[in-house]
Specification:
The complex is a heterotrimer of chains A (477), B (255) and C (242). Chain B is an alpha/beta fold. Chain B contains 13 helices and eight strands. With 242 residues, chain C is α/β, with parallel strands linked by helices. The chains are: A alpha/beta (477), B alpha/beta (255), C alpha/beta (242). Strand 9 of chain A pairs antiparallel with strand 9 of chain C, so a sheet runs across the interface.
């Protein structure tokens, strides 16, 4: 997809002015994911220790990634599947197309896959004459609306139910106009009825993967709807799209990460469905795909290993960072302008599409640290946001007026005598000017501040000048 | 309370110096009550966060070295701010990964640097204060203090001993108020949304005062409450603990 | 794409600042895998005896919106199923896994119940399957695919009835994998002996995609009904049943 991360500030103003989005965000933050996560975490005393183990498992795997990738491939092949390696989104799309063409496919169903979003698969398949059908409810809704996802695990979380009803009425030609579409239940039933025949008719099913198990060559998907399972069970061909960092050594390791995933994501004890798939249908099996393909996408990840952003490769895409991010809660996911929103997106996006395009994202944070405190694999997100800011500073990507102001301030801060003299003057002048009312309603040099809130006036003297006076008096007395 | 005097250097913080010296004097009073001798090194300016958080490593390092020089030799360094104390405790050592000498100095300084209220409770074992304040107040957990330094129960413990004070919790005390240093002027609309929610949360408690341990947040919150015309008294927690509440609240007219 | 494979592996090694691991380290890692060492396992279920694990399994499954009925023996299954179908206003018609573990259910005692054995088709409203194990810690059922246990039974029908023998209840996910390894003689080259799919099922299908409101029956079954058959106790299977 075309990135608009460059326009984060403008995008965020659009988000702040969008009443439906604001209502949807309030629902999420006030009675949705964060609340449910808190409740479920409170029921598992080992949760904090599991986070530490989750971090270790991922770090170990990444430190030996070449070994686990090769072992995984070996086991996929032993189970009768095929592995395709793709360096770029273009290569990955091309492999999907070749598999679809070889299978004579006209329609494909898709389970939710962020990698498919990352490589722009739907547009590519449509241009190649193959109709991709999203089957995750949220993903289906935004496909009808031609929108990108706004959240990692709840792609349509920016919408309210009235918008979903309008979308279905516009898109579903067989829908009786008198049929009520008011409650979530009715909307869900409408989508279920419409998608069921598509599941049964599809030639190829494409899913993502939450984990790839090296020991057995299995792909694991986690869903609540069951769409991923219908997608990978019913068609003749199953394609798994996954990036390199999804590897884990064993099912024991996967079990630890799975204990973290659902609790961090939706606040469930466990998602409804966790499915491990290993190869195509066996002789004698009554169902299941005849062919099983895995596409392993790099797209910059091999470069991230061992560097400042390597920790980001631990991410298990639970969405907890954005669920708890006050900036995400204010502007929504589309403001971030590409596939991955929220704090994890602000760190990952510059790695994948370049810091020039994504320069705003690492700055759009108060570094409040709530994301890191809920991350199931303890990714130090604020630290990495700062790393990006350092690169931006080195490349002079911030506006000149900002950089000059910062340099001037830093120059003064390194000269204590001058600094104290200036602080004394500024506090006296502002204290005198603002004193009677105790605040300023506008200040010409701080319009960014006073545009939205008052500026409290200083008390009128700097601490250091008062302290010096006190010391003098004490010395005399 | 711990016996024996300790020599404490007060890290005033640039915002307290400029905006609210009362907080500095409140800190001095509390530290003295806790049996410390307080000094204020003259060679201090700022902890360097504006540079550090803007990606300007070079200036941040220079300022950090200046702080290490100014504060060497004291038993403790105490700041009435979780954000500045967190900067020195957690971030200074990280800045000097390839410079073992400075790194060792940074770690040495980090080990004796504390946020004011956690220092009083965790180091000086202060369990109560002799202060009086007839208010219903609520408390905002400033982000750095809470998540970098674990400051949460300490201020509540001491506030519980203030005579006449009733503490009413916010619904979301741990959510950022939208200050974030330069963030609040770089993204004013987003910051506004965040501080508006904080103001709503404060108003919903029905409290007549709001306290916090970081002046940046307090200026932001006071500015929003005053812009909305809400009559809520805003103060740094140290002022209340020290019984120094005669100065007008933050952002209020001088009587 | 062979070239891509080599380029990617080389890039990974370059970033990790080393060449291939070498035979010795690789052997170590393979040994670690083969040891199936458990990570931290929560005490919630492991601290309980088997009877209490069965109770925990039932409580957790119900918390995940599954419904549970306890039956003394297989002979009681037809009557319990008939009553369940009637109470939910469902047709007296079932598609059943063609698995020998279900052969002993005396369906003839309920002649009005129409039974078909095989995979699920689009017209099937209710399925009944066995499970491989039941995991107490989250009320999760572990099902494996095979010639007699087709996966479509777990997802296509609106209502899925799963039969669990009490001695199939284990404490944790790791216990489930251990049992599977025992059952299929998993070994170092055993990947291909693994069933094509292993399904962990916890409650019925659901979605929260519209305004975070949980709606059951998104694409998979709206109802998940569990029959816990109490004829076989732990001790009949393994030393502690878990």
């Amino acid at each position: 997809m075309q990135a608009t991360s460059r326009n984060f500030a403008a995008n965020s103003r659009v988000g702040l002015a969008n009443e439906n989005l604001q209502q949807a965000l309030d629902i999420m933050t006030q009675r949705g994911f964060p609340l449910r996560r808190r409740e479920v975490v409170a029921r598992l005393p080992e949760f904090e220790a599991l986070r530490e183990r989750g971090r270790e498992i991922k770090d170990h795997t990444l430190a030996h990634l070449d070994f686990y990738l090769e072992l995984y491939e070996e086991n996929v092949v032993a189970a009768g599947g095929e592995v395709h390696w793709a360096r770029t989104p273009e290569e990955a799309c091309q492999v999907v197309l070749e598999i679809c063409r070889a299978a004579g496919a006209r329609t494909v169903t898709k389970g939710k896959s962020m990698i498919a979003e990352e490589i722009g698969l739907n547009d590519f398949l449509e241009k190649s004459g193959i109709a991709p059908i999203e089957t995750d409810l949220g993903e289906y809704i935004i496909q009808l609306r031609h929108e990108p996802p706004s959240h990692l695990i709840a792609p349509a979380m920016h919408l309210v139910k009235e918008q979903v009803a309008d979308t279905f009425r516009a898109a579903h030609r067989t829908l009786d106009p008198r049929r009520p579409l008011i409650e979530a239940r009715e909307l869900c039933d409408e989508a279920r009825a419409l998608l069921r025949p598509q599941f049964l008719a599809a030639d190829v099913g494409i899913t993502g993967a939450n984990f790839l198990v090296a020991e057995t060559g299995s792909s694991i998907i986690v869903t609540n709807e069951g769409n991923g399972d219908l997608t990978q069970t019913l068609p003749r061909v199953h394609i798994v799209l996954a990036s390199l960092e999804k590897l884990v050594p064993t099912f024991e390791d996967a079990a630890t990460l799975l204990r973290l995933l659902a609790r961090s994501a939706t606040g469930q004890e466990f998602s409804s469905y966790m499915t491990a798939s290993t190869g195509p249908r066996r002789p004698g099996d009554l169902d299941g795909p005849e062919a099983y393909h895995v596409i392993l996408l790099d797209n910059g990840r091999s470069q991230m290993l061992g560097g400042e952003f390597a920790d980001m490769l631990r991410c298990i895409r639970c969405g907890a960072c954005m669920n708890h991010c006050p900036v995400y809660a204010a502007v929504g996911g589309h403001a971030y302008g590409w596939v991955y929103p929220g704090p994890m997106g602000a760190v990952l996006t510059p790695s994948l599409i370049g810091i020039k395009e994504a320069a705003s994202l690492p700055n759009a944070s108060t570094l409040c640290g709530r994301c890191e405190s809920v991350c199931p694999v303890k990714i130090p997100l604020p630290k990495m946001l700062r790393h990006w800011r350092e690169r931006e500073f080195a490349q002079k990507l911030a506006p000149r007026v900002w950089r000059n102001g910062l340099s001037l301030w830093a120059w003064v801060a390194q000269r204590p005598a001058l600094y104290h003299a200036l602080a004394g003057i500024v506090s006296r002048v502002l204290g005198w000017a603002g004193g009677p009312r105790g605040r300023f309603r506008s200040l010409p040099f701080a319009a960014g501040w006073t545009g939205v809130r008052d500026m409290p006036a200083p008390e009128g003297r700097s601490f250091h000048s008062l302290w010096a006076e006190r010391a003098k008096t004490a010395g005399r007395g | 309370m711990v016996e024996g005097r300790a020599r404490v250097a007060l890290f005033v913080t640039c915002l307290v110096d400029l905006f609210r010296p009362t907080v500095g004097f409140a800190a001095v009073k509390l530290l003295e009550q806790a049996g410390c001798t307080v000094e204020v090194p003259r060679a201090q300016t700022c902890c360097g966060q504006p540079a550090y958080n803007s990606g300007d490593r070079a200036d941040a390092k220079t300022i950090a070295v200046q702080v290490m020089d100014a504060f060497s030799g004291y038993d403790y360094v105490v700041a009435p701010s979780g954000s500045c104390a967190g900067m020195i405790r957690l971030h200074y050592p990280k800045m000097f990964v390839d410079d073992p000498t400075s790194r060792a100095r940074a770690e040495e300084l980090a080990a004796r640097t504390w946020e004011l209220v956690s220092f009083l409770v965790d180091v000086r074992k202060m369990g109560e204060v002799a202060a009086q304040w007839r208010r219903v107040a609520t408390y905002h957990d400033a982000c750095s203090g809470l998540r970098e330094l674990g400051v949460r129960d300490q201020p509540r413990r001491l506030l519980a001993s203030v005579e006449g004070l009733e503490l009413r919790e916010l619904l979301n005390p741990e959510v950022c108020c939208g200050f974030g240093g330069t963030f609040c002027v770089k993204y004013p609309e987003i910051s506004d949304k965040m501080v508006s929610e904080k103001a709503d949360d404060i108003a919903a408690t029905g409290a007549d005062a709001v306290l916090a341990g970081d002046l940046g947040c307090l200026l932001n919150i006071a500015g929003k409450l005053s812009r909305q015309g809400r009559q809520v008294e805003v103060r740094h927690v140290a002022e209340v603990l020290a019984g120094m509440t005669s100065a007008p609240p933050i952002g209020a007219p001088r009587s | 794409m062979n070239r891509s494979r080599e380029v990617i592996l080389a890039a990974v090694r370059r970033s990790l600042n080393r060449g291939p691991l070498g035979a010795e380290r690789e052997a170590e890692l393979r040994d670690q895998i083969a040891a199936h060492r458990r990570n931290l396992v929560p005490a919630r279920a492991t601290s309980l005896d088997h009877l209490a694990q069965v109770e925990l399994f039932i409580a957790m499954a119900e918390a995940a919106q599954a419904t549970v009925a306890r039956v003394p023996a297989l002979a009681d299954v037809p009557e319990t199923v008939t009553r369940y179908l009637a109470s939910e206003n469902l047709p007296a018609e079932l598609v059943i896994a063609p698995d020998s573990s279900l052969d002993d259910i005396p369906w003839t005692t309920r002649p009005l119940l129409r039974i078909r054995r095989g995979r699920a088709g689009k017209a099937d409203a209710v399925s009944l399957t066995p499970c491989f194990a039941a995991i107490a810690e989250t009320g999760t059922l572990m099902l494996v695919s095979g010639a007699h246990t087709p996966t479509t039974l777990n997802f296509l029908p609106d209502t899925h009835i799963i039969l669990v023998h009490a001695d199939q209840v284990v404490a944790t996910y790791e216990d489930g994998w251990d049992r599977l390894r025992e059952a299929i003689h998993w070994n170092a080259t055993g990947a291909s002996e693994l069933p094509r799919t292993v399904n962990f099922i916890t409650g019925p299908s659901r979605t929260g995609d519209i305004e975070q409101r949980i709606v059951l029956g998104a694409h998979g079954p709206r109802r998940l009904h569990i029959l816990v058959v109490e004829d076989r106790r732990a001790g009949d299977h393994g030393e502690n049943g878990g």
